[in-house]
Amino acid sequence: MITMKAVVLHSDIPEKAGRDEQDVLVQVETVCRSLTELGHMPVALPVSMDFKKAIDILAGIRPDFVFNLVESIAGHGNLIHIAPAILDSLSIPYTGAKTDAMFLTSNKVLAKKSLDAGEMPTPPSFLADGRQSLFMEGTYIIKAKWEHASVWLDEHSIIYAKDGDRLRQAVLSQQERLGMTCFAEPFIDGREFNLSLLAGDTGPEVLPTAEIQFRDYPPEKAKVVDYRSKWIEDSFEYHHTPRRFDFPEEDEPLIKQLTELAIRCWQLFNLRGYARVDFRVDVNNCAWILEVNTNPCLSSDGGFAAAVERGGLSFNRAIERIVQDAVCSRHLP
């Protein structure tokens, strides 16, 4: 690949930001180092609510491509699509999903509607405004509509509801507590899998399947990958949710099912570069799509990097393929 000028675009992170937001800076450093080793000339550029400033700087640099690591703007996950929209307006090639795919997949409720329309399995969503699927008594998990990285997910997020009104009140209560729009979905009490995808010459490559295990969890503790398991290093959850890539022979049909669904997600949302699809598998071995992440973490100790290594690729080679896909696709609207 020829030497190119690159901008690594990322969220402007305040000093007192949480661990999930601070991790963006680790990703910036990792990607910049990789791009430099590949022979490119990267410059990191934070994006704030001052969009004109970012536009002027980009126009002045005139990069050959932008590596888009923006996950939120001013702490708001629902502005994640602004970065690719700006790059579309400037006709600058960029890595990862296009604006429409970024918006659809980041809005978890809209993503579910798209998955339903594509006849793909995903738990139904229940909103506090009454727009919800047919209610069934059971255990539910309440999630933020936009935020990622299991933001604000904890033990208060899982409830047992006997009727629709109880569920609605729980969603409203969580919205008031967090200050953001939430929704509920049936809690799939089972296994959790992540499948990372990487662009290739003939289409997406599904990297080795990863399962998040819940080791030594007491019976009363919900098996869920929450904020503590991802970011709080001295917590029980952090140390008891290891990732594994080795599976017994009897899991082969399940792995095949997950792989096919991950590829269908890539095709449904017209994804680019790289992505990750998160699944839960119930007691009947049926897979349910929880989330399609169009810009999974690129830290060297993250799940995507682990899947890349397990797949026999160097991290630099993965970054190179992401860049090639961006430059070849040009990501014009």
Secondary structure elements and their pairing?
Elements: E1 5-11, H1 19-37, E2 41-47, H2 51-61, E3 65-68, H3 82-89, H4 99-106, H5 108-117, E4 126-127, E5 138-144, E6 158-161, H6 164-178, E7 182-186, E8 191-200, E9 203-206, E10 210-212, H7 227-231, H8 236-239, E11 243-244, H9 252-268, E12 274-281, E13 287-293, H10 303-310, H11 315-329
Parallel strand pairs: 1-2, 1-3
Antiparallel strand pairs: 4-7, 5-6, 5-7, 8-9, 8-10, 8-12, 10-11, 12-13
Helix pairs in contact: 1-11
Provide an overview of this structure.
This protein starts with a strand and ends with a helix. It has helices spanning 19-37, 51-61, 82-89, 99-106, 108-117, 164-178, 227-231, 236-239, 252-268, 303-310, 315-329, and strands at residues 5-11, 41-47, 65-68, 126-127, 138-144, 158-161, 182-186, 191-200, 203-206, 210-212, 243-244, 274-281, 287-293. It is built from 11 helices and 13 strands. The strands form 3 sheets. Strands 8, 9, 10, 11, 12 and 13 form a 6-stranded antiparallel sheet that branches. Helix 1 (19-37) packs across helix 11. The mean pLDDT is 92. Helices cover 36% and strands 21% of the residues. It is globular and about 60 Å long. It has 3 domains: 5-96, Rossmann fold, CATH 3.40.50.20; 105-109 and 190-329, D-amino Acid Aminotransferase, Chain A, domain 1; 124-186. A hairpin with a 5-residue loop joins strand 12 (274-281) and strand 13. The protein is an alpha+beta fold.
